[in-house]
Hints:
Elements: H1 2-23, H2 38-42, H3 49-79, H4 82-100
Helix pairs in contact: 1-3
Amino acid sequence: MLYGFLLTLLIIDAILLVPIILIQQSKGSIGLGSLGGGAQMLFGGSGGQDIFQKITWILGGTFMGLALLLALMKTNYVAESRYLKQITQTAQQQVQKAQQLPERVEEPVEPATAE
């Protein structure tokens, strides 16, 4: 339940992160942020880059944190998986059966000599 909720938050975070990055004006003035002067007037003289940068840092940090947390949760989930336990039990049973079999002692074969 918690894993699904956090995964949903990660997806929403990623979806929000893409347009925020695209809106920002680059140093070379190439990008969606430089398409018009109206954006600069709307967000102030600097074009609102401070707020977009802060939002980008917050969303990026949240994305990294959620991705790390989900990876750790998934690792623990796999370690406790019932399928992994079944595979381990089957492998242990096969090892036990192999140990119960009598060992075959093979006599060394002498190489044939050419006469």
